[in-house]
Amino acid sequence: MDIESWRKKIDAIDLQIVALLSDRAVAAQAIGKLKQATDLPVYEPNRERVIFEKVRAANKGPLPDIELVHIYERIIDVMRALQSDELASQRSASAKGKDARTGETGKQS
Ligand SMILES: C=C(O[C@@H]1C=C(C(=O)O)C=C[C@H]1O)C(=O)O
After folding, report:
1. What are the domain boundaries of the chain?
2. Rg for the chain (alpha carbons), in Å?
3. 14-93: which CATH architecture?
4. Helix, strand, coil: what percent of the chain each, to 5?
5. Which ipTM did the prediction report?
6. Pocket of ligand 1 contains residue 8 by CB under 6 Å
7. Which of 31, 35, 98, 105 could lock onto 93 through a cystine, CB 3.0 to 4.6 A?
8. CB 100 within 8 A of CB 90
């Protein structure tokens, strides 16, 4: 294959990666909401260790394990921030009596 063909392949793969990362973010957000309801912490280091192990075990190359784990560390950082933002916005909305998603007060006018 020539460079253009490989680049088209990368573009198609990137679309899949973005869709999968979005799905992962939706799952992390859902977990964040459940954590808020049960007062569990956002950061769960044991769970993260399990994920890094699974990623290493699934790796067939050519990326070295350490690089793949670095990518995952970054992904998980972002997922944690998403959960924290979600929690922060829910807390501030509930303090103001507003719906966290829509910002509506729920009062009839
Ligand atoms: C999604 C969770 O919250 C955090 C984010 C994780 C992730 O993105 O995989 C894993 C553990 C937690 O630090 C979870 O607890 O499962």
Report:
1. 14-93
2. 19
3. Up-down Bundle (1.20)
4. 75, 0, 25
5. 0.99
6. no
7. 98
8. yes
